[in-house]
Structures are given as C-alpha cells and as structure tokens.
Design a protein that fits this description.
single chain, alpha/beta, six-stranded parallel β-sheet, six-stranded antiparallel β-sheet, 7 helices, about 15% helix, elongated, disordered C terminus
Length: about 400
Amino acid sequence: MAHTAREGDDTVEFFDSPEVVDEKVTKLAEWIRQASHFISFTGAGISTAAGIPDFRSGMHTVLETGPGAWELRAKGKKRSSKRKVVSTVQALPTPTHMMMLQLCQNGILKGVISQNTDGLHRRSGLHKQELFELHGNSNLEVCRSCHREYLRDFRTRSAAKVHDHLTGRNCDDPHCRGKLKDTIINFGEDLPEDVLEKSFEHGEKADLCLAMGSSLTVTPAADIPKIVGKKGNVNGGLVIVNLQKTPLDRRASLKIHAKCEDVSRLLMDKLGLSIPEFRLQRKLLVTQKTVSGSPNCKVSIQGMSSDDFPFSFISKVDFTSGAKTTSVSKEPFQVITEDPKKIKLLVKFRVYFFGHYGEPPLDFEWPLQSMSNASAMYVLEFNPFTQTWANPVIENDTKVTDVTAKLQAAAL
C-alpha cells in the first residue's frame, strides 16, 4: 500500500559523487534553459531540511530528521529526541522552496505541483495561482457551502476521526455561515477536482518536470510526472532528485542521487541566479467605514496573505483612542470610534501575532478620516534570522485618501 513503509532494498539510499552531481545538474540547467514548459513536482523530501520528517526514509537514513513516519510505525519505534524535528508552523522554507519561488517569479518555472501539506510552499511567497497542493494544506480551511477559503497561521485540522474534516469554525460571510472543513486529503479520499485537473493540464503541456523529494508511489499524484516521463524527451522529460529508488526511475531522462537542498543550490548557481533568503510576508488591510444610522465609524484590521487572500495571522489587537484601550482577541478585529467629523481623533493599534518565528507586536497610528470611509493595505516583511520587521510600505494600488499611518516595531 502507498501509505505503508518501504521494504528491503527500497529503503537503501544512494549518493552520486560530487563530480557526477555537478555533471548531472549542469545538464539539468541546460534543459531548463531550453524548456518551453517547465514544471516541478514536490514531495516530503524537500522539507526534511526544514526539520519536518518525511514518511518513507529507512531506519538508517542520513537525514537529520531520522526515519520516516511510516517506517517508525512499521517497526514499532519512536523518533529519538536527538533528531532535528520542527513543527510545521515553525519551520522555515528550505533552499528548495525558495529556489522554486525565484524560478516562478522569473517566469522560468510555470507551476509547482506538490503532495506536501506542510504549507511551506505558500509560506515561501509562492502564489496560489502557481501552486497546486494535491493533498491539501494544513493551514487552509474552506467553507462547505460557499467554498470560501481561509488561510490560518495555525493547523486547522482538529478532528479525531480520519474522514471527519469539520474544524468547528464557521464561514465569516453573514449570508452564509457555513461550516468550515480542513483541506487535508487522507488515504482513500478524492483529491480536489479543480487542483487535480489543472495539475494534469500542466503535465500534458510540460516538456520538463523536476520531481524532488518524492517516492513517486502515491497515485493519482504520481501519474503527473509519469505523463512527462512517457514522452521520452532526451533533452528534458522527467528528472528525479531522490535518495531512494522510485517506480518512475526507468521513465526518467535523469536521476540525481543527492539531497534536494544541495541540488537546488548548485542548480541556481548553474543558472546564474541566487536563492533569496526567506522573509515572512504579511499584509494588513486597515479599513474605516461609517456605522449605519450613526455618526460614528468602525475601524477594522484584517490580515491578508501576500497574494491577497484573507489570512488569520493576528492573535490580538489593542485599539487605543484617547485614554480608552479596547483589546480584541478574535476576528473580526474592529472597534467603534467617535464621530470623526466632530473630533480629530487618532486611533492607535498594537497588533499581536501568533509568534511562530518570534515576531514582536507592531504599533501604528490611524488618523480618523473626515469623509469616514478610507482604507490602506500595508505590506509587512519580517526577518526571522534577525527577529526584525522591515519598514512597512503602503501597497501601490491601494486606494488611500488622507492616510498618514506610522508603523513601527513595538518595544517588548
């Protein structure tokens, strides 16, 4: 079965010599330059460098995360506390994630098809339009009724039963209020039709598919790189980067036995490109609206993803106007203020985050607008290595009138 551990020789890890890896990656770089439709296919092996264990690595793996989850289960063993393991919400995107982000941004990589549910591709900055998560995203839930999506800065799955996907939350739309479900696809469940269809479309178009960190045993996902491999393109086709053997090795034009992160660094060097250092990208939408039937107004803050999807990454907001401070610890984050036409009032915010990367809270000020309705989208960037926020900027296409907001890191 696809969800069981591998056996015998299938768990053996192979390593090409540095010279052979260099030769193979040079060839891969040439094929990428020639490709008209280049796609990637990713599995759990690209996230082990982030400290997230995979599923099928053997008991004697060289990976710092140790044996795969199903290997341990099959052997009745527990993971050693000495192993390098990080929760998915605290993990940093790896060089492989950041390589794919850069290649997509440069228009070289046309799509990333992934079996991973850890959310690292999305967190790296990759937009939804370029990413096809076949098995779901542990940070994403969707309304059963209207299908609206909600991206969270926490794991959405809470159900104890395998095929129970309700999260206990409801849709924010007052006209809907449907029940939300997580997006994780468990064994025996159907993959999302739209994502699967678009993934196969990319597979049919592709003349080059780079499969990294996947055992290529789980179908129908593995059928996508198989399609590219069947084309038999000697100047491209299917390229596999994996330490273990895979069922599609005979379909591959090139097989590289090396760690994904090592291949990624070398490949980008061959392409003359740099791998960007990860930055946590956030957006804050601040909105001021007139309260119906009242001279007062409502000021609200909404977290947004880098590709403008509602994103729950705020844990609390302190609103201060005059001597009064109101703390709001759940969505929607909003406060009713005095009539802005009668008084020049400055609303101060302190925004708190879940702090998976140690993000400090942020302080900023919002001058109430005399016309009552106004909005601004702030782009935030956090460096997890220095634990600092960059100076925020107002997004270019945001419609802003008389807004002079100041945003700065709050003193802890």
